[in-house]
Every structure is written in structure tokens, then in C-alpha cells.
Amino acid sequence: MGDVRVPRQLFLRGVAVAYLCAFASLYIQIPGLYGDEGILPARLLVAGEQKPLLQQLQESPSLLWLVPSLGLGPQQGLELICLLGALLSLGAVLLGALRDSLAYLCLWILYLSLYTAGGDFLHTECDSLLLEVGFLAFLVAPCGLLRSSTSPGLHDPVTFWLTRWLLFRLVLCTGLSKLASSDPCWWDLTALSRYYETQASPTPLAWYAHQLPDWLSRLGAVCVMASEIAVPLLMFFAPVRGLRICGFYIQVFLQLCLVLLGGCSLTHLLSVVLSFSLLDDDCFSGCTHQKKKPNQFLLSCLALLVKLAVYVLILLGTIKLFKLEINWEQKIVLSKTNFTQENFSEFVSLIQAPTIWVGVLSLTWEAVVTMLRCACVRGIMGKLCALTQWAIFTATTVAVFTLSLVPYTAVAGVSAGKIFREVQNAYGAVEKYQLVSAYGIQHRMVPPAGRPEVIIEGSGDKKTWKELSFMHKPSSVSEAPPVLGPHKPRLDWLLWEAARADYQHSHWFTGLVQQLLLGKQDVLRLLQVDEAQYPFRVSPPAFLRAIEQRRLLYVREFFPAVHLGDPVLEELLQEAGLKEKFPVLPISDTPLAQALSVLRGHARGHSGPLVLLTLFTTVASILLLKDLVSRSRTPKGPKPKSKPATSEHKSKKPREAHPEASEKNRGPSGRGGRKEGLEERRIDSDRSPRKRK
Q: Where in the numbering of this chain does the Lipase maturation factor 1/2 C-terminal domain appear (predicted)?
């Protein structure tokens, strides 16, 4: 690949935007999730660990252990971490000077601290992806200590290559997991028609997509699997630049469709950010029509033939594997899978080793080309500095690539026995830091019976039950689902996943029931910001239960009817580790604690989508003003043409062309030369014929 300065800057700014979304979205939900009166109080985790500080940091790396030294409680410690991360990521979005490796290292440490202490609400695939992408941003971003060196940025293609390898693993593993899960909806190509209904946060456009004819939804499922399996295998590491650019457009279009139909989650945003690794600086430069040399013309023709061959291979392979046929009478396209699960398992086993070797060869090529560039730096010290940077970053890249082979070989249930034992041990040692992760393995089957919903109901007399509606969850069939944007409601998301299992697998659900029975306002704001929409705003319900529904039909009892002091509830709280063992500490009066309380008071009562929309509107306005100011400072209009040189200017040009000769004529000093010239002019004027007369 060529230079990657522009794609690297886009990648770094996109990672900063993703961090900003994550920190701001989580900050709004901290009191209800981890507050002293939240579902999973963070004080139980902090107070329950009585170990030395260094041992605590080694076992569970989190800055939350350092919070007591600042005179803050666990909830305020989490809020401080979120605020610091949001401010730093906002600065990285607006200011290029803050897009430094040190800044991204701080962002990664801050989010890792939240991930470690977050429990079930933060242990999702998108959070693992954000941590891995954030660590790669730390490697890709320029280091402030090396900016004054003689060879800045020569190692960028090597470290930036890791983002393309992560994109390859993410997309390919996501596509393979759909078929490896033995999900009948993907094997009979009816997954998309059910995806619009059963996804966690559908958009209003998903209803219209759900009305599409069945044959078109089947064809869409074929296109999705071809985009996630064939495209990364044949385009992401292709030596032909046009194939990589085509892969970029395909992935961006796929993610855009998912955003329009299923909301803008961090996974979609990070997938687009990672797709910039398929581009180079030439993609952003103006098109120049230059005459090509014979060798370049032959190479262009060869590249064109390779691109056509890949396009034809993908098209013919898709037609054969999914048995695509056109029914001219009905004007539809018929499709069905034309291979078995045994064929698919053999295919996965067959491509695993070659894809690893393709990655090795691609990384070797980037490393060798970068080393040759470093060797061409002028000066011995410049060469030594450039080669030292190259060696350090290349070794780090090779180490991260080697560690990523462990989760990559676990795709589709394939054993990782071929990986060296030392590599597996190293992966186990750093797994808690989320440097590399597995993707697509936790793919859940789309339920054919319809969208499962956990309905929480409250009652005052155990006879009349009222539903507790969630503002971020599609509940009513007659109303359009809410548009969340990049905000991720953690409670609603876990409720959507919990509907596929029992409450025994979701210990946090018991904490939710307890806080709803107590009527804690911080938890109620996770359900409804508008108190008028909550049916028990006057007094909390005396009884609570949860049932599961599919398409408004009763399926089963999800959680038994309980009340405060119920032995069943007490036993469940004991099993979940949520029994009150440590008293709530009073809020300290330090200036930092008071400032955090004031900020929390201003943020209370606002929904997450509204806060993020306001934040992004402000950021967009600032960027627009910066662009307008920079354009106003640049001169407008064509440059004035220089006037033709006169005879005097022409006569003076030869004299100005030889400054050394003029300096010699002037003498050792400029002023002395000027005096001598004046005296010569006076002598010449005295010798003129007019003076003689």
C-alpha cells in the first residue's frame, strides 16, 4: 500500500468519536446501574475486596481502586472516569494535537477500568471491540516524543496494518458464525425477515423492510453472507488496490444499511472506522490524468484482469452455492443453500491456515518496505533512529498479531490446538486487558416464534397487574420504535438477551426487581425519564413479577411474583451476592466531590439519546466554524498574474542572478559599498560635458 496518513487520521478521529459515544452514554446510566441505590452497586465490589493495592490492580486492572484516595465513593469514581474519558475524547475529535498515542493510551486505560468493574452490563462484544480498537489506536497514533525525530511516521504502515487484520477477523468471523451456529434461519435464508422484528433496537425503517417480499429478503441474506465471507477473503489483502477500495465501499454500504434498520451501535461505527484501513492517501487526492508509461499500462491491464476475475469468481460462487435462479414468469429471484453443514465445516477448516499465512506474508511485505524506507533516511543518526523505531513497532505488531491467532482459530468451534502452547499461555496472561478478542462466537439464533419480550408487571393487591414500560424498548405495536442513535441502553439490551434464557442466568435481574420494589428514582429513570409515563409514580408497587411474551402472546413465567421481605427474593439476592453487607458511605465534602454532584444534578432527568444528540450537534457546529474560519483566512479568487518585465527589470535580472559578484563589488560591508558607489556617481557627474561648460 501507499502512504496512509489521511486514512490514519480518519481512523484516529473515528476512534475518538466512538470513545465519546461510549463514555457519554454510560455516564447517563451510572446512577441506575452502579449507584448506591442502583441495580449492581459498585460499593459491594470495592468494599468486598480486602487485598493490597498492587495485587488488586494485577487481578482486576481498574482505576476504581485508586478512587478512595481522592475522597470519592465508588459511584463518583465511575462518574469521574466517564467525565475524564469524555473530555479527552472530545478534545481528540476537535484538536489534532490531542490525537497522540499518550491520549489514546489514557482513553484505553479509562475504558478498561469501566469494563473491569462493569460486570454484565459492560461485558458485551462491542465493549471488547472498543478496547481492542482503542489499543490499536495507541499503537497507530503518533508519539509526541518522536515528533522531533528525523523520520516521523515511517513505521505507520506497519502498525496501521493491524487495523486491517482486525477488520478481516471481525467481518469474516461474524459471517462464519451465522452458519456455524446451525441457525435454521440463516440456512433457509429467512434470517433477515425475522431480524427486522427480533433485533434489540429496531428503527422505524425496519417496519418497512419487514414488509418486503420474501424472495427479496432471502436475496438480502445471500448478499450479507457474501459480503461477510467472500469479500474479506478475496479483497481485504489483495495486492490490487482497486479490490481493496471495492471492499471498503461494500463494508460501508453494509454497515449503513444495518444502521438504518437496526440503530447506530458501537459495533457498526467501529466497523466503518476500521474500514479506512483499506484505503490510502491516493484515494483522497485529486484525479490527475497523466500519460502512463508502457510498463504502467501493462500493470494496469493486469490489475483490471485480476479485478474482473475476482468479481466473476464471487458472482459465480454465490450463484452456485446459493442456487440463484431467475423466475421470469413471476419476476423474482429464487435462492436456497446448495451445501451442507459438513461442507461448510470442511471449508472453514480449509481456509483457516491459508488466511493466517496470507496475513503473515502481507505483514512481512509491509515490514520490509518500511525497513527500506527507513534505510533511505539521510544521515547515520537518522537511519539509526528510523530503524530503531521500525524494530520496536514491528516487534509489537508481530506480538499482537501472534496473540490474535488464538481467538481467530476458535472461530466456528475449530480447535486452537495448532497454536503453540507458549502463545496460548501468553494470551491467557493478557486476556483480562482485552488486547485481542474473539468475535462472532456468541452469535445467538434468531427465534422462529417471534420476538421474545420480558414484561415486568407490578401490582398493589396481586390481582390487578400493570406493565412497567421502558422508554427505549419497542413495546407498543401501534407506535413507532424510538430512535436511539449511538446511545446504548444497557438495561434494555440485557433484557433483550435475558429473554432467551432464564432469570437464574441473569443475577442482575434480581437486583432490578429489588430496586423497583423500593421505588429508587435512579433505577426508575432507566425505565422512564418522564415520571408521568410510570404507572407507580405515587407509591412503588407491593408485588412484582415478570412474564415472557412473543407477539403479544403469553409464553411462560420469567420471574415469580415477589414482595419486599419475601423469602424467595431474599434467597435470590443472597445467591446473586446483592445482600447488604457494607453500609453506604456518606458523600465527602471535597471540592471534587461537590463538582461531581453539581454535574450529576444537571444531567439528571435527561435521556441518553437527547444528551448525545446535543453533544454531537455542538461538536459538528464547532468543526463547521473551524472550517469556515480556515477558509476565510485563505485568499479567494485566482492569483494575480505577474506583469511582463520591462527593459529595466530585464537589465537588472542578470545582476540579481549573481549575488556573489555583486557582493564582491560592494566590498566587505554593505554600507561601505553604498558610499563608494555614491562617490563614483559624483565623479562621473563632474566629468559630464555640462559641468565642463
A: 435-546
What residues are paired with 559 via a beta bridge? 546
Select the more confidently predicted residue: 146 or 475: 475
What is the Cα–Cα distance from 562 to 570, expressed in whole angstroms?
Answer: 10
The count of other CB atoms within 10 Å of the CB of residue 388 is 13
Between CA 603 and CA 611, with CA 609 as vertex, the angle to 5 degrees is 35
Which position has the grid cell 496473540?
Answer: 403
Q: Which of 18-22, 31-35, 44-48, 552-556 has the lowest mean pLDDT?
A: 44-48
The gap from C-alpha 502 to its chain's centroid, in whole angstroms, comes to 31
Per-residue pLDDT, 398: 96
The rounded distance, in Å, linking the Cα atoms of 654 and 556 is 98
Angstrom distance (rounded) from CA 481 to CA 502: 26
Q: How far apart are CA 519 and CA 550, in angstroms?
A: 28
d(CA 91, CA 103) in angstroms, rounded, equals 10
Each residue's pLDDT tens digit, 483-541:
888 899 999 989 988 887 777 778 899 999 999 999 999 999 999 988 888 999 889 99
Segment (H or E) for 556:
strand 553-562
Q: Are 104 and 137 in contact (CB under 8 A)?
A: yes
Grid cell 461448510 is found at: 344
To the nearest 10 degrees (0 to 180), the angle between helices 5-34 and 591-603 is 90
What torsion do the CA atoms of 247, 248, 254, 260 make, to the nearest 10 degrees? -170
Would you call 329 helix, strand, or coil by DSSP?
coil
User: Which grid cell sits at 460?
Assistant: 398493589
pLDDT at 71: 84
Nearest to 596 by CA among 72, 66, 29: 72
Cell (9 digits) for 27: 455516564
**How does DSSP assign 138-177, residue by residue?**
HHHSPPGGGTTSSSTTTTHHHHHHHHHHHHHHHHHHHHHH
**CB 335, CB 324: distance < 8 Å:** yes
Please answer whether residues 490 and 33 qualify as being in contact, where contact means their C-beta atoms are separated by less than 8 angstroms: yes
pLDDT of residue 405: 93
3-state secondary structure of 553: strand
Closest alpha carbon to 486 in 206, 207, 252, 201:
201
Name the burial class of residue 454, with classes exposed (0-12), middle (13-18) and buried (19+) by CB atoms within 10 angstroms of its CB: buried
Q: How far is Cα 313 from Cα 330, in angstroms, rounded to an integer? A: 28
CA dist., res. 249 & res. 255, Å (int): 10
pLDDT at 655 over 70: no
Amino acid at the residue 63: L
DSSP of 225-263 = HIIIIIHHHHHTT-SSHHHHHHHHHHHHHHHHHHHHHH-
410 vs 424: CA distance, rounded Å = 12
Q: Cα–Cα distance between 643 and 657 in angstroms, integer?
A: 19
C-alpha cell at 630: 480556515
In angstroms, what CA-CA distances link 138 with 102, 116, 261?
Answer: 7, 19, 32
- Selection from 309, 308, 339 nearest residue 323 by Cα: 339
Cα separation, 648 vs 670, in Å, equals 23
In one letter, which amino acid is 553?
L
Q: Walk across the sheet containing 553-562 and list its strands.
A: 466-467, 452-459, 543-550, 553-562
